[in-house]
Amino acid sequence: MLGSAFPKRWIMSLALVGLAIGVLTVYPGHSTVWAAECGGTTPEGSIPTANQLTSVRITPNTVTLNPGQSIALSAIAGCGSAGDESQNLINTTYSWVPSGVTLSATTGANVTATAGSASGTVTVTATQDGITKQAVRSISVTIPSTPTPVDTPVDPASTPVLPAVDASTNQALVSPTAGGTVASQDAAGTFTVPVGAVQNQFVAIRIKSWTSADVKKPIGYIVGSNVKAIDTTDMAGAVYSNFAYLVAAEVCLTYTADEFQLAHHSEIAMFKEANPEASPVKLTTTLDHVNKQACGKTMSTSIFFLGLAETPFDASVVVPPTPVVVPPTPVVLPPTPTPDVVLPATGDIAPGTGLLIGLGAAGLAFISVGVYALRRRRAEIR
Hints:
It is a single chain. This protein is α+β, with helices and mostly antiparallel strands. The chain folds into 3 domains: 2-38 and 352-381, no CATH class; 55-141, Sandwich (Immunoglobulin-like), CATH 2.60.40.1080; 170-309, Chondroitinase Ac, Chain A, domain 3. The chain contains 3 helices and 19 strands. The strands form 4 sheets. A 6-stranded antiparallel β-sheet has the order 9-12-13-19-15-16. Strands 10-11-14-18-17 form a 5-stranded antiparallel β-sheet, with no helix packed on it. Helix 1 packs antiparallel against helix 3 (353-381). The longest helix is centred in the C-terminal third of the chain and has 29 residues, at 353-381. It starts with a helix and ends with a helix.
């Protein structure tokens, strides 16, 4: 009797005590501090905090556009401090509300904003599991000043001599009473300043060919091959950075037959790169298909090029949708997966303190029962 009862109770007691010790070793109770994915810690024995939304911001930080210019905006939501958000925040949706600007979309993390005729704002709201945060970005719009033309243009007393230019550049003199026109060396571009566009001074206009790789692609357009850099300078050859004509000048660029085909026989537009960081400005364009030439009006000089529409522009041409027949997809039931034994990892649920105390108490209880039974058996034998 002693040989059968003693080992069974004693082994069971030791097993329970060993289980409790093992659990305490693997999950060290009060010493456990689970790391949160977004930094910091969570209380011991609890599920760690996942990436929780605490702030959202809009990039770029400052936006200054001319009327009609566009720029890409991105919303970045995160669980860090403001300005240090993580762009990979999980389970987050975005909604945008414009004021005074036009947006390419009202949802998603990335949108394109197009400036109107005055400054405006863009507001983004990030939402994650019932948590919402907002950020506002001001869109500053710079309106080029248009000086009032003088009724009677007057030339200065003496006509200056134009300064020397490099071999790839053509230039011409502009006077208040005669205006001026300059043509590029390849005859593919001209810039014409009308009478009265300048007053009481002479200026020079310069034109040279530019490469299409050096200009920013407008949204919805392909950059054509004819790109011209046009400058306005003083009589010493210094380029004016913010010169505005009193009357709009005209820039004309030619296009090829292949580019006309590429633009779907319709949409070719003149663009002006006013700010290398923003989308080029689309000018009101007049097309001359006989001479294969596009012209636009401008109050200042910059880099000019033609944009070729990526998609047909004529809205009257309606292409009926092609019916799509989807064959039935056979249903193949996947094999029932065998559940894997996954040990708890950082971020899983840890045993609570009460469970650990209960396991320890159970082990001690079984030990006590085993000792009591052993003494009683010995007493009976005596």
